[in-house]
Structure formats: C-alpha cells, structure tokens
Amino acid sequence: MLADALGRPLRFIVTAGQAGDAPQAAALLEGQPGQAVLADKAYDSGALRATIAGMNAAAVIPSNRCRKIVIPHDVDTYKHRNRIERCFSRLKHFRRFATRYDRRTIHFTGFVHLAGAMIWLK
Fold first, then answer.
1. Cα atoms found within 13 Å of the Cα of residue 15, Cβ hemisphere only
2. What is the pLDDT of residue 49?
3. CA angle, residues 38, 42, 46, in degrees to nearest 5
4. What integer pLDDT is reported at residue 58 of this predicted model?
5. How many other CB atoms are found less than 10 A from the CB of residue 61?
6. pTM of model > 0.85
7. Which pLDDT belongs to residue 122?
8. Backbone angles phi, psi at 37, to 5 degrees
9. Taking the chain (122 residues) in consecutive chunks of 10 residues, what is each chunk's mean pLDDT?
10. Closest Cα partner for 38 from 11, 66, 57?
11. Nearest-CA neighbor of 38 among 64, 67, 3, 66?
C-alpha cells in the first residue's frame, strides 16, 4: 500500500498471502510525485533506490544488515514512517478488511476502495 504524508491510502496492490511486499513497491510508486519515499529495511534494494532516484525523490530507507556498504538515511524524516502503520490501523477497524472474509480478490479490492474512501473523508 502507498500512503501520502497524512497517512491516507493512495494505491494498493493485492497479492497472494505468501508473496512479499517489496517486489510491488516499484509498481506502487510508478507515476507518483513526491520529495521523499519512506520505507523500512525490508524495502532496501538497489532497484527500488534507483526507481526512487528516477522520481527525483530522496530514499529514506535504513540499510539492511546484510548490506556491505551502509547507506545513510535521514533519521528525523524516518520518524514519520509510522503514518503508513496508522493507515493500516484505521483500515483494520473495518472487520471485513482485517479478517479478509472475501474469497475473491475483486470483492476484497472493492471493499478496500470503499474503506480507503471512508478514511479520506475523516
């Protein structure tokens, strides 16, 4: 999921339960403007950093432990990364989102659009 600076959802991609989130990051960022992209260590990859640099934005991503050359990040800006966590927290107030009762992806996707719109209105 991609959220703006206020923690409101902008884009999301539904994947299989066993799939990781990091491979979807470049697709979520495609065509989005911004000055910085904040993400956690799981998103630390050279390809994603190149995508962010192509957007003329700063990558505020801490380096993964296995990275040989540590890339510094802005610690003060990284403190705002919790806004995506707040976005998920607000979405999880909708029981249908939190438990994903919907078997079909299209039904779940439709509800995520509805719940995201309701969050924007608050």
1. 14
2. 92
3. 80
4. 92
5. 23
6. no
7. 64
8. -120, 120
9. 86 80 86 89 90 92 88 89 87 82 85 86 70
10. 57
11. 3
Helix, strand, or coil here: 30?
Answer: coil
CA-closest candidate to residue 33, choices 60, 74, 62, 2: 2
Query: Domain residues of the chain, as ranges?
Result: 2-121
How is residue 28 written in tokens?
Answer: 């979520």
Distances (CA, A) of 10 to 25, 72, 73, 87: 13, 27, 24, 10
pLDDT at 60: 92
CA–CA dist 82, 40 (Å, integer): 10
Task: Give residue 24's pLDDT.
Answer: 85
CA pair distance 19, 8, nearest whole angstrom: 24
* C-alpha to C-alpha distances, 47 to 23, 29, 43, 53, 100, nearest whole angstrom: 10, 12, 10, 10, 31
- CA-nearest of 46, 6, 42, 35 to 21 is 42
d(CA 1, CA 60): 17
Number of H helices, E strands in the chain: 6, 4
